[in-house]
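Appendix B. One record, verbatim.
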Amino acid sequence: MNLSLQLNSTKTHIYFASDFHLGVPEAASSLKREKLICKWLDTIKHDAAEIYLVGDVFDFWFEYRYVVPKGFTRLLGKLAEISDSGIPVTFFKGNHDMWTFGYLENELGLKVISDELELERNGKKFFIHHGDGLGPGDNGYKLIRKIFRSRLSIALFGFLHPYLGVKLARYMSFKSRISKGDSDKIYLGDDKEFIALFCKDKLKESHIDYFICGHRHLPLDVQLDNRSRYINLGEWVNDFSYAVFDGTNIELKYFKPTE
């Protein structure tokens, strides 16, 4: 999908954030983080032309026909409020919250993106993707991703009673890297960062000014060539990082947690 738009004079900023991983490592810290995210949303809504949540907002999400996961009411309500105010909010499916089937669109007014989105704002071209499955290697995960996104897998999980399905998913969430606190915070180098390698290959096909991704859990601002940059949004369990485009340039920033 490719969308071009000139930002208006009153709402000039576009905000990007990802990897909130709400639900882990346990309820108390997740709730504290959720309140912080809502506070951040309140601070940006005055000048936000658009908001992009680039995947893994929830550490687990599955929409049964009549049931959604318990919790997250503060964030869901805040997103509905912002969407109702006329600020478009776009939600990208991550590898932890890929199973959304209409609830976020119908109840909150969000736009949901399954994979990548290409758009142009004020003459700048953006490529936005959660980041999972991009680049060379990691073939085992790519196979699992394809299986998890298949209609058969979704149908089989849907047959589980929500008590069992959510309990199983919570158990798996607590084994994830972000929950265990062992996320890789070291830049692997230009020849090993798989998303950066994808970006460089993509540039051979067409020019992109800004590649915006999450998934990596490491805030990054990588100059790919003299015109293109790769921004990784980091995560909100430790870093509280996000990016903002002011209509001319993009900058990686950090939201200061306050008691």
